[in-house]
Design brief:
The chain has 33 helices and 27 strands. The protein has a 4-stranded antiparallel sheet. Strands 1-2-5 form a 3-stranded antiparallel sheet. Among the domains are: 126 residues, no CATH class; 355 residues, Clc chloride channel; 163 residues, CBS-domain. It is globular. It is an alpha+beta fold. Pfam families: CBS, Voltage_CLC. InterPro entries: CBS_dom, CBS_dom_sf, CIC-7, Cl-channel/antiporter, Cl-channel_core, ClC. GO terms for molecular function: chloride channel activity; chloride:proton antiporter activity. Keywords: CBS domain, Chloride, Coiled coil, Ion transport, Membrane, Repeat, Signal, Transmembrane, Transmembrane helix, Transport.
Length: 1027
């Protein structure tokens, strides 16, 4: 059937309708209903057929479009794959370029530091020369007369030589010797030209006091001292030293083997004085490197010299800056305002104690769980292979587990936050002393500290988790007291008044005390620790607040641990370490035992001195050779593996088997080769956490340990602990010291019980283990007052106060005779300008004139902005405080002191553009508030980040309302002990030295005072260096 257009259907239907009507009329039938029904049926059939055809067409069309879409998607997928490969190649190339740029940046930064250090030293030398020249001021008339006399003498000699010229020509010529100078290398000594007649140098004309000098005697040094320099002192230069390149540096001549103070080095009147001395490293980054190491940009060896003080450490401002802004704010504050501030201090101290206790609880629970899993796995493995053989697999498993766990702790310390290494107590001591240690109280440091100490203890190292708690508490205090986190860039707008070093120092003291309290359950000991070990300021209210923080800390830890042990409300865990109660008749002591306790204190002092000396030389080795992060991680893994190997070996070869009674205290008893119902006693000490081992030595019944076991354990653990302290891991030395002392102290108790008739009655091994632990810890850290109270509080028996005090005093006296305490040694190794409580005993003959730094960069009260920017940008300006002077109008007199302003204040003023144009008649500059300075605290931007245009450099800045108008000053003739006492007691950062007319002549800073210390040969002066 052919297809019709839509218009034909209508005509057809009308035609058909007319035909039907005509037929109906003829037949007499009603056509409407019948025809319409037929027509409807036909239309429905047609509609169904049409719909079917349309569905078929749509299906065909969908199939065609689906096939096209699939092919297009495949093409897009292939294109995406090719683009991903290109992007991956591009990413790899960009990563390589970035690494190259970083390596180049590190090299450039290192070179710039070297250049800055050299420039600073050259600037200092120039200032010293200028000052020395001003002091000497020789009389020119005397020099002219001497020169005239010398000229006459030379003319007379020249005339005499001319008269004898003919006679000299008549003398036959003597043959010139052809013998060459001998250069020999014998063993470890280098002998430069031999001491023959040909090798003598004559100085009779220029140096009358030194007519001849043998070159052989002049340059005879050890071959290992490659850096030997020639040190010389003349009338023109006050003790300088030159190397073969001609660069001058500040020298350190040797007089009778000891270094002399700078002011006592007087030049020789007869001319030059030649001296030879070992290299005194002025720049610790200036080292000898091989060609390969130079290309890598890292030194193979970093030399160390303890006769240096680092210039990189800055002081904290522990003195309130009483400028006009501060005084206006204080005067506006009402009595209720001061009361609210006091309440806020108590609230902050409570938060510090609460958070420190939570952190201690977290560390204790995690360590207990992870250590339990590790020891259970190793114990099951050992028991399995004890029966079938192959204990080497157990040893390998133990070593691998320890190394893996310690590796994690070392990586986060060495690569992410190196300041978190160790216990952190030396750094906190320095902070409380007034020294700004970079990154020491940051949130990142706290996170790494907590994670590192968990890995160290679980990894089986000879460490404790109690020491790092002091550092953790200090970081918590520093963060909470500021009401914001600069690391997270979150400001909670609270505690803004406390954003200054004075308030922050007090809260850090409370945090350190809370850490001690959480570690040992000794709140009073924590307060005394903050007082004894570093607090630079103290008052009654501060004592109460610190004690409050300590009590909250130990209560928080006790409460949450009671919940963890399913004994809520039973507060029996006041600290991370629980010595247990020393009660009963067996642990009481008699009067005749006190001399024995004192003797044990002397032994502890000797062993502590040996420990510190060995650790000192080990730290020197690490500074020189193990300074790369990867090497530090490898060393930590090595120590962990060696510790596991030694422990396993000691347990394996020990035959000290003890019966396993119903009241045994061993958490993971090892049977090994012992009979059924017995356990290996050596495993009690090694196969456990250090805290549990200490408690076992204190409270196990007599006969639990064999004397040979205790002796071998003491010797082994002593060297393991000494090797471990100083690794790039977070760890403390408290518990290892207690464990070593408890072991040899218990051994002493066993020996006394054996060699005395009734020793088994009064010589309780646990009692002597406690005395030995106190003696060993005191001999290493040299703490007396706070450690006595800590031990008494931890034991819960005040009757031991007198013996422990005598033991600690004896250990300190004996140990100090040989070497300093461990924390003081590490502070000195870091070249930190630490100020002790008193000035050196032999320094009364020194005055402020010899100690001060001069000349001093001063600023006018109304100063040009360009001058301020140039002063702050000058790298040779080491000081962070600048005296402000004012000149009397209409007078030619030098300007006089009127105030002191800090670098940080000037940075804030420049950042906020607090200056006006010079053309204005009145200086009406922008008004700032103390809030602007507190918002910038503590990370003030560097001067390089502040843009000052050329037009702005010509503007003027009025420093009147920002400077401290009443700085502390001293006359030039003030003795060093008096200057030291004033500086230390008031927590100053700068002390201005003035003359009789209040003119600035010098400035005393922390580094100037820390240069002088009491050495073995009297008063010694250290050198300042950019390390």
């Amino acid at each position: 059937m052919g297809r019709h257009r839509p218009g034909h259907w209508t005509l057809i239907l009308v035609h058909m309708l007319l035909l039907q009507l005509h037929a109906v009329k003829v037949q007499g039938i009603d056509p409407v209903s019948q025809k319409l029904r037929r027509l409807n049926e036909q239309f429905q059939q047609f509609q169904a057929l049409t719909q079917a055809r349309l569905d078929m067409l749509a299906l065909n069309q969908n199939r065609n479009s689906s096939q096209g879409l699939e092919s297009r998607l495949q093409a897009l997928n292939d294109h995406y794959h090719h683009m991903s490969q290109d992007l991956e190649h591009l990413k790899q190339s960009i990563t390589q370029e970035i690494e190259g740029l970083r390596e180049w940046s590190r090299k450039l930064e290192k070179k710039s530091k070297r250049i800055e250090g050299r420039l600073a030293l050259m600037e200092r030398n120039l200032r010293e020369n200028r000052r020395h020249g001003q002091k000497q001021k020789p009389d020119p008339s005397q020099d002219f007369s001497n020169l005239t006399l010398e000229l006459h003498n030379q003319e007379e000699r020249l005339a005499a030589l001319q008269d004898q010229r003919d006679e000299l020509h008549k003398i036959p010529a003597r043959p010139v010797p052809k013998k060459d100078a001998t250069i020999c290398n014998v063993d470890s000594m280098l002998f430069f030209p031999s001491a023959s007649v040909e090798n003598y140098v004559t100085f009779s004309l220029t140096l009358p006091d030194l007519p001849e000098l043998s070159v052989c005697l002049w340059l005879r040094v050890e071959a290992s001292h490659v850096g030997t320099l020639l040190s010389y002192a003349t009338d023109d230069n006050d003790n300088h030293r030159a190397d073969e390149s001609g660069a001058a540096g500040e020298g350190t001549p040797l007089l009778n083997g000891s270094e002399q103070p700078r002011h006592s080095r007087q030049p020789s009147e007869g001319g030059s004085l030649c001296q030879i001395g070992r290299l005194s490293t002025v720049d610790l980054e200036e080292e000898i490197t091989s060609d390969e190491e130079s290309q890598r940009g890292r030194p193979k060896e970093i030399p160390h010299n303890e006769k240096l003080l680092s210039l990189k450490y800055e002081s904290l401002d522990y003195d309130n800056i009483e400028n006009q802004l501060f005084l206006e704010e204080e005067r506006k504050m009402s009595y209720m305002g001061f009361r609210c501030l006091e309440i806020s201090r108590w609230v902050v101290c409570g938060l510090i104690g609460f958070l420190t206790g939570l952190i201690a609880c977290f560390i204790d629970i995690v360590v207990e769980q992870l250590a339990g899993i590790k020891y259970q796995v190793v114990k099951e493995n050992i028991e399995k292979f004890t029966e079938v053989g192959g204990l080497s697999i157990s040893l390998l498993l133990w070593a691998v587990l320890n190394s893996a766990i310690v590796m994690l702790g070392a990586i986060i310390v060495a690569f992410f936050e190196p300041i978190a290494a160790g216990s952190g107590i030396p750094q906190i001591k320095c902070y409380l002393n007034g020294i700004k240690i970079p990154r020491v109280v940051r949130l990142k440091t706290l996170v790494v500290k907590v994670g590192g100490v968990i890995c160290s203890v679980v990894g089986g190292l000879a460490v404790g988790k109690e020491g790092p708690m002091i550092h953790s508490g200090a970081v918590v205090a520093a963060g909470v007291s500021q009401g914001r986190s600069t690391s997270l860039k979150r400001d909670f707008k609270i505690f803004e008044y406390f954003r200054r070093d004075t308030e922050k120092r007090d809260f850090v003291s409370a945090g350190a005390a809370a850490g001690v309290s959480a570690a040992f359950g000794a709140p009073v000991g924590g307060v005394l620790f903050s007082l004894e070990e570093g607090a630079s300021f103290w008052n009654q209210m501060l004592t109460w607040r610190i004690f409050f923080a300590s009590m909250i800390s130990t209560f928080t830890l006790n409460f949450f641990l009671s919940i963890y042990h399913n004994k809520p409300g039973e507060l029996s865990n006041p600290g991370l370490i629980n010595f247990g109660r020393f009660q009963g008749d067996s642990v009481a002591y008699n009067l005749y035992e006190i001399p024995l306790f004192i003797a044990m204190g002397a032994i502890g002092g000797l062993l502590g001195a040996l420990f510190n000396v060995l650790n000192y030389w080990l730290t020197i080795f690490r500074i020189r050779y193990v300074h790369r992060p990867c090497l530090q991680v490898m060393e930590a893994m090595l120590v962990a593996a060696v510790t596991a190997t030694v422990s396993f070996t000691m347990i394996y070869f020990s035959n000290d088997c003890q019966p396993l009674g119903p009241e045994h205290t061993e958490e993971y008893p090892l049977q090994l080769f012992c009979a059924d119902g017995e356990y290996n006693s050596m495993a009690t000490a090694f196969f456990n956490t250090p805290e549990r081992s200490v408690r076992s030595l204190f409270h196990n019944q007599p006969g639990t340990y064999n004397p040979l076991t205790l002796g071998l354990f003491t010797l082994t653990y002593f060297f393991l602990a000494c090797w471990t302290y100083g690794l790039a891991v977070s760890a403390g030395v408290f518990i290892p010291s207690l464990l070593i002392g408890a072991a040899w102290g218990r051994l002493c108790g066993i020996m006394l019980a054996t060699i005395t008739p009734d020793g088994s009655i009064w010589a309780d091994p646990g009692k002597y283990a406690l005395i030995g632990a106190a003696a060993q810890l005191g001999g290493i850290v040299r703490m007396t007052l706070s450690l006595t109270v800590i031990m008494v509080e931890a034991t819960g028996n005040v009757t031991y106060g007198l013996p422990i005090m005598l033991v600690l005093m004896t250990a300190k006296i004996v140990g100090d005779y040989f070497v300093e305490g461990l924390y003081d040694i590490h502070i000195k190794l870091q070249s930190v300008p630490f100020l002790h409580w008193e000035a050196p005993a032999t320094s009364h003959w020194l005055t402020a004139r010899e100690v001060m730094s001069s000349p001093v960069t001063c600023l006018n009260r109304i100063e040009k902005v360009g001058t301020i920017v140039d002063t702050l940008s000058n790298t040779s300006t080491n000081h962070n405080g600048f005296p402000v002077v004012v000149k009397v109008s209409g007078s030619d007199e030098p300007p006089k002191l009127c105030g002191l302003i800090l670098r940080s204040q000037l940075i804030v003023l420049l950042k906020h553009k607090v200056f006006v144009e010079l053309a204005r008649s009145r200086l009406t500059q922008r008004k700032l508030q103390l809030k602007d300075f507190r918002d910038a605290y503590p990370r003030f931007p560097p001067i390089q980040s502040i843009h000052v245009s050329q037009d702005e450099r010509e503007c003027m800045m009025d420093l009147t309302e920002f400077m401290n108008a009443t700085p502390y000053t001293v006359p030039q003739e003030t003795s060093l002990p008096r200057v030291f006492k004033l500086f230390r007691a008031l927590g100053l950062r700068h002390l201005v030295v003035v003359d009789d007319e209040n003119r600035v002549v010098g400035l005393v800073t922390r580094k100037d005072l820390a240069r002088y210390h009491l050495g073995k040969h009297g008063l010694e002066e250290l050198q300042l260096a950019q390390t």
